[in-house]
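user: Please supply your own:

assistant:
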Amino acid sequence: MLALRARQMRNFIATLMLSQGVPMISHGDEFARTQRGNNNAYCQDNELAWVRWPEEGHPLLDFMRAMVWLRKDHPVFRRRRFFHGRPVEGTHDELSDIAWFTPEGREMTHRDWESAPASALTVFLNGNAISEPGPRGERITDDSFLLMFNASPEPLEFVVPVDHGRQWQVIVDTALEDGVPAGGGAEVDAGDRLTLTDRSLTVLMRPGVGAPARAKGASSRAGPPSAGAGARTPARGPARRACVEKREPRARARGGRMGRVAGKLHADASGTRAWRASVDAAGGGVR
């Protein structure tokens, strides 16, 4: 039961972080803070509402960090426009920007959508069919992904769709305790079969156009991000710690500045005028 609960937490986190739009996360979700089921604990000045941050090495917190970086590094999860559901003009890609498949690997029909027992599907996100430009008008390209969802209470066999990429690599598997395959996940080809544990989610990645090809068996986690898509798969163990440590000084600097601003805001009763003055003193205005 506890293992199933932990897997469901990873499922919710992965589904949220791989969805379009702005993720809404309540503080403490990243390490399974529950407030013992109390959803209205504003008046509880005790351990029920206090936040006790975990020590390093918390499995769910590590998984959340990996999913945050996966979302941050791949614009296909952060589109600013709606999907077209067809090949996008100007991207020179014959595949649709999004496609939905049954576990058998065939594209879903209206009958499949209306099937009440349906509890499993695969979503294809085309990183080469992002229609919106970048901040300087440049074209945005990314790796492509297959998101396989098995919400049924039984293990299910999924077929990797054909004609949407020859080779894929597993980068997320919520059936695993840490959710991230060790040393790079298994590589699969179009038409291969994968067995998904009951109530689990698996993510497969295909390098985008322009990314250097990898030999069969080579891990996508080794070396720098691919030049074509700028992708960075979630690091693990020492690699993940090095990645986090590299960014911590910059994050602390930003956090320190904003912390000083917030402190001045609450300490001074003059409200908006004091807040603007403190922002200007801290960094010359909001950018």
